[in-house]
């Protein structure tokens, strides 16, 4: 089992920045990718970004150029630096972990509990 805990969410004005963290514990696998999804009220959970064990990154078009995903394998922690935030970025943000082939989908085996990000206009 892998446990994932997100932190760093909060309330920010449009144009501001936030940094989310996702700490992994338990049975962590060295070759696992990690990713971020988000879910706004009344909408489906959507892919935001993912990073392979070796550091290859993937982004949704809606966040490309504004968000940066990174990871520190020694600390089993992943980060999401969010800049130039917009009201439409408001959502609960979830981290996940698993093989790269599924971590960009909702079929990833491990998920955190989510952290709320609210962007005011």
Describe this structure in words.
This protein is mostly beta strands and 121 residues long. It has one helix at residues 100-103; strands at 2-7, 10-13, 18-26, 33-39, 46-51, 57-59, 67-72, 77-82, 91-98, 110-111, 115-120. The protein is 3% helix and 52% strand. Strand 7 (67-72) and strand 8 form a beta hairpin. The radius of gyration is 13 Å and the shape is globular.
Annotate the secondary structure layout:
Blueprint: E1 2-7, E2 10-13, E3 18-26, E4 33-39, E5 46-51, E6 57-59, E7 67-72, E8 77-82, E9 91-98, H1 100-103, E10 110-111, E11 115-120
Parallel strand pairs: 2-11
Antiparallel strand pairs: 1-3, 3-8, 4-5, 4-9, 5-6, 7-8, 9-10, 9-11
Please tag this protein with its features.
121 residues; mainly beta; 52% strand
Order of helices and strands: EEEEEEEEEHEE
Q: Helix amount, in percent?
A: under 10%
Oligomeric organization of the protein chains: single chain
Q: Please outline the major beta sheet.
A: 7 strands, mixed
- Shape designation: globular
Number of helices: 1
Structural class: mainly beta
Distance between the termini: 40 Å
Low-confidence stretches: none
């Amino acid at each position: 089992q892998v446990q994932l805990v997100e932190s760093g969410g909060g309330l920010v004005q449009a144009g501001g920045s936030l940094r989310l963290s996702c700490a992994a514990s338990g049975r962590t696998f060295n070759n696992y990718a990690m990713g971020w999804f988000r879910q706004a009220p009344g909408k489906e959970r959507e892919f935001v970004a993912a990073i392979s064990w070796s550091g290859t990154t993937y982004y949704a078009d809606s966040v490309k150029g504004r968000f940066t995903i990174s990871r520190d394998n020694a600390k089993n922690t992943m980060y999401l630096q969010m800049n130039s935030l917009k009201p439409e970025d408001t959502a609960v943000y979830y981290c996940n972990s698993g093989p790269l082939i599924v971590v960009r989908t909702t079929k990833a085996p491990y998920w955190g509990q989510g952290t709320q990000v609210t962007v005011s206009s």
